[in-house]
C-alpha cells in the first residue's frame, strides 16, 4: 500500500472556482472524526503493506482541532503498520496557520505542510474568494518554519481573468523568496457547478488566451528552474529532492486507500469512491456499511493510466515495465504512436523511458491522447 488519503470535507467559506466536495457547516466534525476512525477499521484488511504516506486533503483539513487529529492518528497507528519515515502531509489554509496552530501541528505526526496560497496579490485572492491575504500567506510559511517544519509546499494558480504575465511574474518572485521546498502550480480551470463557471457563462469574466497561458507556463518553468526547483511533474516542482511522495505514488500507479466522503481508492485493479455527502457517509459508516461504488479497470484502461501518469513525470513511461505488464502489442502500439513525436523532439527515449521534452510539455494533452488505446 502506497498511502492513505483522508478527505476532510470542511471549509469555512467556498472559493469561487472550487468543485471539491466540502461543507461549510462544521457542526458535524466530531461525528465525522468518529466515522473516519470506523471506516479505517472496516477497511483495515485492504492495507497489507506498511503505510508510506498519509495525506490529509480537503476541504480544509486545518479546520480540525488537536483532539480530532489525535483521535485519527491513534486509530491509524492501532490498525496499520506505519513506516517510521512515512511522509505525513496536512493541507492547510494560510489563515488557519497562526503561530500557535503551527506549533500544535508540530506536536502531531505531521512532517509536511501543503498550503493553499494560490496568489500573493490581494486583488487576485479577493477575486478567488480566498479568505487569506498575501501578508497572511507569507506569515503562515514563517510560522510553519519557526515551528520546525522542514518540508513546506505551496499551491499557486495562474491564468486568472485579467492576470498579466507581469503580475504572474511578481507572484513567482514572491514564491521563490520564500524558504520552501515545493511548489504546485495549476492553471485556473472553469469547473461546471462553480460560481466562476456561472460568471463565465454570463460573460462577466474573460478567460486567459492560449497565448497568455503558454507565456505564463513558460515563465513558471524557467523562473523555478533558475531558483533551484526541479520540474518533476507537469504541475509540480521540488527543491533538494523533496518530491511529494504521496502524489508521486499516484503517478506511479501505486495502491492507496481513501477515507472520508468523496475519497477515492485504488487497489491496483479497481477504483472505488465514497459517497460525496457527509450526512450519507456518517449514517452508512455508523451502520457498518461502506458507502462506495467500485469500477474494475479493463486492461486497456490500466494501460492508458500507466502511460498518462508516467508521461506527466520527469521519470516518464518505463517501457520495459510497460511491455512486461501490458504485452508486446500495447508496447508496439505505444512506440509506434510515439514515433512522430520523437521525430519532432516532443518526446525522447532515455534509458528505456519515454519522456516529454520541454516543448512536448506544452502540448502534453495532445500527445497523451495520441498514445491512448481506444477500444
Ligand atoms: S478552501 Fe480549498 S477546498 Fe475549500 S472551497 Fe477553497 S479551494 Fe475549495
Automatic annotation (TrEMBL):
Superkingdom of this protein's organism: Bacteria
Lineage: Bacteria, Pseudomonadati, Bacteroidota, Bacteroidia, Bacteroidales
Family membership noted in the UniProt record: Belongs to the anaerobic coproporphyrinogen-III oxidase family. HemW subfamily.
Entry cofactors: [4Fe-4S] cluster
Coiled-coil ranges per UniProt: none
InterPro entries: Aldolase_TIM, Coproporphyrinogen-III_oxidase, Elp3/MiaA/NifB-like_rSAM, HemN_C, HemW-like, rSAM, rSAM_sf
Keyword annotations from UniProtKB, A to Z: 4Fe-4S, Chaperone, Cytoplasm, Heme, Iron, Iron-sulfur, Metal-binding, Oxidoreductase, S-adenosyl-L-methionine
Broad class of the protein's primary localization: cytoplasm
Protein name: Heme chaperone HemW
Entry's Gene Ontology BP terms: porphyrin-containing compound biosynthetic process
GO molecular function terms noted in the UniProt entry: 4 iron, 4 sulfur cluster binding; coproporphyrinogen oxidase activity; metal ion binding
Subcellular localization: Cytoplasm
GO CC list: cytoplasm
Gene this chain is encoded by: hemN
Role, per record: Probably acts as a heme chaperone, transferring heme to an unknown acceptor. Binds one molecule of heme per monomer, possibly covalently. Binds 1 [4Fe-4S] cluster. The cluster is coordinated with 3 cysteines and an exchangeable S-adenosyl-L-methionine.
The Radical SAM core domain, residue ranges: 1-230
